């Protein structure tokens, strides 16, 4: 569920300040399941475009007295990854050794090929795969087999890029 | 967690649903209920509820327990609520049928059939809605297909509440004049909320996602799709809460139903256009039997709408409403349901059996679990019988209707047998059926290995 972080820029503007930096800073700190609830003394139209390019959609509503409440939430590319993967860190995701383009395969063939490839790879190696949709039944299976994954849609929302790090759960446990 | 596991009890819902459908078709073939008996007679009520609750609702509940998580890409809110819900639904449904038999004078023992039916059906549907709504609530803002399902869930609550009022009134348990009025005039609202809101809306939502998935077509989130959702929801709000207000304020229901029908027609046209678009832009050229047979279900929906418009134009819709309901229930909802079962049962069985060893052992493909050529004739027999049955109803030939119902029974038994073979892996080559680590799946329960 999206939880919203509140940011009221009305005091900043009333004091003659420029809130744009503060807004971007808040957005940058949002987690994958977090959105921004912005309170402004006008309808912040330029922000719709600016945050839209970062994968955010919005819903706005006039609060009366000229004030606006705007909810920004993610609909575009967000990178998800399974559980403890965050603790592995960026540096420990080496360049993929295996690349699969499964975008034109009938389901569940992409899942079959990815699992076959992971069985042929060594612990610590990384596989990259392109898919045309989120591999919802594959992800729990990867976890059961002790692999870590991270994935998300590209900017256009048409290609899902998945990275799988072989046996990384066992590796972290050692 | 992100990702979806198998729903444990979906197969039990499907099995109970298919038994209820066969029972209903058997009764229809034997001349029980409409058109041999009046629409409001107890035998008709028994057949109607065997189809609406026993078959369609159990089928939809089972399917949603698996596919609502697919729509939002999150696990089900609770895995342990599904079985108690099924038991309550079956128990409540049994009590309802006994209540109708008692009304008909077939049973003499006076027991609180309708009170028990209200309680258990309310509880059963309540548990399913609680589970599915809990899954959806965790994933807001909802993707568009999931919003259709949310409207469907709201509708099943309304349908069940109206049904409970009718049951309590018929059982002589309540005598509030407002509720008596509702029970006397509210049947169309109950049918619209059930067939239109609950079953059709959920079928629409799930089909937007599944058809895109199975045909490798892009997901639709266009303006027409949103308009279909909004118009359809409007039709329901006008018909059901609007209809209740009309009944209670002593106004005619006709105007309300016409307004609702116009909005509903708009929604269905937009939905039809979207489905046509998905078939046209699909990347997968050769489509499987289930997707081909679904076309016949869509055609039946179109036919139901067309027949309704023509009958209304001649001012005889009310007299022949059974034809439209029959086409919607058997051609559209049941046809789509049977076609999709032919995908879902093999896929779930394949994933349960071979998922854990994929890549480690040579495994069959999903399509190796079925023999489409064998199933195709049963599907064609089914749809031809449905259309013939509708014709027999329209022209008022009960014997021809009974023959059509018998043919539908045979067709469903044939499809059911093919589903059973898929579940038992009977059509997989013996050599590759059980690689090491794979065992025969249980018929009614899906085994899910914990992470």
Describe this structure in words.
The complex is a heterodimer of chains A (174) and B (451). With 174 residues, chain A is an alpha+beta fold. Chain A has two domains: 3-74, 2-Layer Sandwich (Translation Initiation Factor IF3), CATH 3.30.110; 80-173, Translation Initiation Factor IF3, CATH 3.30.110.40. Chain A contains seven helices and nine strands. Chain A has helices spanning 10-14, 20-28, 45-52, 85-88, 109-120, 138-144, 168-173, and strands at 3-8, 34-40, 56-64, 67-74, 80-81, 98-101, 126-131, 148-153, 160-165. In chain A, the strands form two sheets. Chain A has a five-stranded mixed sheet with strand order 5-8-9-7-6, covered by helices on one side. In chain A, a hairpin with a 6-residue loop joins β8 (148-153) and β9 (160-165). The longest helix of chain A has 12 residues, at 109-120. Mean pLDDT of chain A is 81; it is low at 83-90. Among the domains of chain B are: 1-140, no CATH class; 297-427, no CATH class. Chain B has 14 helices and no strands. In chain B, α5 (144-170) runs parallel beside α8. Chain B is globular, with a radius of gyration of 22 Å. The model of chain B has no long low-confidence stretch (mean pLDDT 94). The interface between A and B is medium-sized, with 32 and 33 residues.
């Amino acid at each position: 569920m999206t939880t919203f972080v509140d940011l009221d820029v009305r005091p900043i503007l009333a004091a003659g300040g420029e809130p744009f930096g503060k807004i971007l800073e808040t957005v940058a700190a949002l987690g994958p399941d977090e959105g921004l609830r912005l309170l402004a003394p006008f309808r912040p139209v330029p922000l719709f475009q600016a945050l839209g390019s970062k994968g955010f959609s919005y819903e706005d509503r006039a609060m009366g007295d000229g004030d606006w409440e705007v909810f920004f939430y993610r609909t575009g590319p967000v990178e998800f990854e399974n559980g403890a993967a965050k603790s592995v860190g960026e540096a420990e995701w080496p360049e993929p050794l295996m690349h699969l383009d499964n975008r034109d395969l009938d389901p569940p063939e992409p899942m079959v090929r990815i699992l076959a490839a992971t069985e042929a790879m060594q612990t610590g190696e990384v596989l990259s795969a392109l898919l045309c949709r989120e591999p919802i039944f594959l992800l729990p299976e990867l976890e059961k087999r002790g692999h870590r994954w991270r994935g998300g849609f590209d900017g256009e929302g048409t290609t899902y890029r998945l990275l799988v790090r072989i046996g990384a759960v066992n590796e972290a446990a050692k | 967690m992100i990702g979806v596991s198998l729903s444990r009890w979906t197969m039990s819902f499907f099995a109970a649903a298919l038994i209820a459908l066969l029972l209903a078709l058997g009764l229809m073939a034997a001349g029980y209920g409409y058109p041999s008996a009046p629409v409001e007679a107890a035998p008709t009520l028994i057949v109607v509820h065997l189809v609406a609750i026993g078959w369609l609702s159990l089928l939809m509940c089972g399917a949603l327990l698996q596919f609502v998580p697919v729509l939002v890409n999150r696990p089900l809110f609770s895995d342990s609520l599904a079985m108690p819900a099924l038991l309550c639904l079956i128990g409540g449904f049994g009590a309802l049928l006994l209540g109708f038999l008692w009304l008909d004078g077939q049973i003499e023992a006076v027991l609180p059939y309708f009170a028990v039916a209200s309680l258990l059906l309310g509880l059963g549907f309540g548990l399913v809605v609680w589970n599915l709504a809990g899954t959806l609530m965790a994933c807001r803002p909802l993707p568009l297909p999931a919003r259709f399902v949310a409207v469907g869930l709201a509708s099943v609550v309304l349908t069940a509440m109206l049904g409970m009022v009718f049951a309590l009134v018929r059982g002589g348990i309540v005598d509030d004049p407002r509720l008596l009025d509702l029970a006397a005039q509210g049947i169309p609202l109950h049918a619209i909320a059930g067939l239109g809101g609950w079953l059709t809306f959920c079928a629409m939502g799930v089909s937007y996602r599944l058809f895109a998935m199975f045909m490798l077509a892009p997901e639709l989130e266009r303006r027409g799709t949103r308009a279909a959702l909004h118009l359809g929801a409007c039709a329901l709000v006008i018909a059901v809460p609007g209809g209740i207000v009309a009944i209670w304020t002593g106004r005619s229901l006709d105007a309300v139903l016409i307004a609702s029908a116009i909005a509903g027609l708009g929604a269905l046209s937009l939905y039809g256009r979207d489905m046509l678009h998905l078939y046209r832009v699909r990347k997968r050229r050769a489509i499987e039997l289930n997707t081909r047979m679904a076309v016949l279900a869509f055609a039946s929906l179109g036919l139901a709408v067309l027949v309704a418009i023509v009958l209304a134009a001649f001012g005889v819709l009310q007299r022949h409403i059974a034809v439209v309901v029959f086409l919607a229930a058997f051609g559209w909802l049941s046809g789509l349901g049977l076609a999709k079962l032919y995908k879902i049962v093999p896929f779930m069985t394949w994933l349960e059996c071979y998922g854990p060893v994929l890549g480690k052992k040579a495994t069959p493909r999903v399509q190796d679990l079925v023999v489409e050529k064998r199933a195709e004739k049963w599907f064609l027999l089914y749809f031809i019988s449905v259309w013939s049955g509708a014709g027999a109803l329209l022209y008022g030939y009960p014997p021809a209707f009974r023959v059509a119902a018998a043919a539908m029974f045979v067709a469903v038994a044939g499809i059911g047998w093919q589903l059973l073979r898929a579940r038992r892996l009977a059509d997989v080559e013996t050599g590759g059926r059980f690689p090491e680590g794979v065992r025969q799946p249980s018929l009614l329960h899906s085994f899910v290995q914990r992470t």
